[in-house]
Amino acid sequence: MDIVQMLKALGDETRIRILNLLKNEELCVCEIEHILGITQSNASRHLTKLSILKIVDYEKKAQWVYYKLSKKTLEQFPFIKELLENELNKIDICKNDIEILIKYKKSGMTCEDEKFITARQTIQSINKWIMYKKGLLSLAVRKLISIDISKYKDSQGKLILLDIISVLSQIQKIQPTNDVVEYIDNAIKGEYLNKKDIKEIEKLF
């Protein structure tokens, strides 16, 4: 293993913060990005670098990838263990990250919950720009109707579906398509919506 490349990796603040979080337990990518307040692509880029250098190991569990510190590497390079255990707790941002991690764990939030919240926020945000970017409406419809709501818990799937329908109703008023009509028809016939939901949806169209 190239010690120079390892030292370069440890010279990055975000990677140090990631290792700080992993020193006590394994974490999923979405947990790391939430706690550090970084994007998924940013978190994945740094985790890939740490994985290539074998500073962290990873394991895929269902649809999630979990990362943990490599015991073998820590044994081979004890200065890394010394850094993690005795130095990072002196750095304010690292101490703050651990406090956020503790609060996050106590909240009972899961990776599925994180993805659900992000999905709803993304879908709802479309309403803010559909009036100003009409050239993207066809693409928005295709993306929305392709969302697989079955991967969410029943109650979450229903909320995602209602969000999708709400946005589609606005798009349909601007640029009507048969795809939206077919999607709504299938949704009404599906298992997620009750009679009250269907009545509210009919008002939208």
From TrEMBL:
GO terms for molecular function: DNA binding; DNA-binding transcription factor activity. It comes from the Bacteria. Keywords: DNA-binding, Transcription, Transcription regulation. Residues 1-95 form the HTH arsR-type domain. InterPro entries: ArsR-like_HTH, HTH_ArsR_DNA-bd_dom, HTH_MetalResp_TranReg, WH-like_DNA-bd_sf, WH_DNA-bd_sf. PANTHER family: TRANSCRIPTIONAL REGULATOR, ARSR FAMILY, TRANSCRIPTIONAL REPRESSOR SDPR. This is ArsR family transcriptional regulator.
